[in-house]
Design goal:
The chain has 6 helices and 4 strands, in the order ββααααββαα. By secondary structure, the chain is α+β, with helices and mostly antiparallel strands. Strand 1 and strand 2 form a beta hairpin.
Length: about 120
């Protein structure tokens, strides 16, 4: 039986494990995968991500809504620095306003009922 070295834990595993992996996943393996993803993508550990979410009350840093699925949360980062965890709508909204606080303030004034605020 042939074996292949696991990218996550580094242990040699039989090839049959790779085709049935989802059926045989342990919580420890899932945690290692999540930790590796967080570190590779954002440079933080899964524990840091969990602490950040807990400090936000378990929901979006802007609207506070806690989504039904953790996969619906997005790590907001600007030039590599992690700012917080946002829901999809807030994350897309901040992106659409190009992370510009002045533009966001103008949009907030518009929504409050100020109407058109000019072009500059």
């Amino acid at each position: 039986m042939s074996a292949k070295r696991c990218r996550i834990c580094g242990e040699p595993k039989p090839l049959t494990e790779y085709y049935r992996r989802r059926l045989n996943e342990t919580p420890e393996r899932k945690r290692k995968q999540r930790d590796a993803y967080c570190w590779r993508t954002f440079g933080i550990s899964a524990d840091e991500l969990d602490a950040m979410l807990a400090s936000q009350g378990g929901g979006c840093a802007i609207c506070g809504v806690a989504p039904a699925r953790a996969a619906s949360l997005h790590l907001d980062h600007d030039t590599g620095a992690v700012r917080g965890i946002l829901c999809l709508s807030c994350n897309q909204g901040v992106g659409k306003f190009r992370d510009d606080p002045a533009l966001l303030e103008r949009a907030a004034a518009y929504v409050r009922g100020g109407g058109a605020t000019g072009s500059g």
